[in-house]
Amino acid sequence: MRRATVLFGLAGLFAAGAVHAKTWKYDQFPADLASAAAAVQGQPLATQPGFAQGEAFGQFYRPAPGDYPIDITGIEMILAAPPSAPSLTTHAVIEVWLVAGDGPGPDAGKTEPDFRISTQDLFNPTTRQLGMPLVGNTGLSIAFDPDEPSGHPPSIKSGNFMVMIRFTQPSRDMTSEWGTFQCGSFGCGCQNVGTLHDQSSSPKANVMNLLMPLGSCSGAATGWKWMNEIGVTGDVILRVVSTGGGGCEGSCAGKECGDDGCGLPCGACTGDKVCKSGKCVDPCMPNCAGRECGDDGCGGACGACDPGETCEAGTCKGGNPPPLPAVSGISPDWGWVDEATPVTVFGAGFRQGAIARLGAANLVDVAVVSDLKITATVPNLFSPAKYTLSVLNPDGASALLENAFEIRARPQPEPGSEPQPDSDPDPAADAAGGDVPDQKIVGPADSGCRAGPVAGPAACLVLALAAAALRRRRV
To answer: How far is CA 210 from CA 60, 95, 214, 307, in A?
Structure first.
């Protein structure tokens, strides 16, 4: 009902005949937020929760000449919540940047957005107070205040624009909440919510603003990157709602789902069906096995070839040879002989399909997160010793790091002493005890999300919609 109240209010404010609402989005779900929330349920979507304080995500929009003037009236989004703590919230800053160039960041010399508002300045219709934090697994609809000059973005008369969501709270160790060691303290930790990505990637659309140099956990967010160019795939579920322009004649002819071309829904699919080109069809599972480029079978891409190369049957050919791999570190760099140990390998030049080894034995659960990072698990099959780490790319190029990982035997109790419980093979914990040096390695980050992707079904998505009318604190 809160959402209906806000929508009715907007209809009353913008009821003039020449004004038409438009939803700017890239994700594959219906333009109507309620329909999108229903379609997200049960989908195997990925999330990126590993933003450091000061980092941001958003999208870049390129209006057509007939779209101007553009008056942004609100934003909508669906974020992910930690599986073990779905009620956690966080505050952030919403930014709108007017851009003359083609991204991924602001124009040269521009350091401040054209509009900025904190979620702490949003009116919360539930508490009847200021403060509307972001929450995961919920369709969030935020309407800007058209009556207050500082309560809404400026009218856009030309050029492009970006909308960014900037995290203002420190990241922390959230291994238990997100269920992945990648949110642990050896990196920068994670946030209380994460971005939610669909299964298709629009080129030069999704943006990250990262701390520099890459891999930093504090400092200035001066790095602007396209997500798909740093290994983060899928379109973020973030929308911009606007009015203005020369009007739009929508049409649902021949469509049973999707939007009418003007941001209004033509219908929603039911059951397991998904909307594709206006038709409800069975979901498509992308398949990039053995492919480094080309189509994934569902209209998406398995990857992009380097400049000068061409994609032939899923393989990049021609052009300059790929850079040779290099291994710079592994975290943690030791494990117990009787336990499997999850690890992250840092370096450069890693390619999809690469194999990681200790000595002559392969690691398991190997995943090439980007050309800078590999995650894997050391199985409990090794004898106590130090082992050389090697990474072998599909083209035969390899890299070594000698004595990179140590398998340790558990200490035996002294004769006559009481047996002690096994200790936790956490290098950071042992370092605190003084027996093991600090093994924390901050490797290069591929996306600003040093937690990496955490994939899982969004089955717990709350269909309730939180809507908030934005108001500045008045002096």
So the answer is: 16, 15, 7, 25
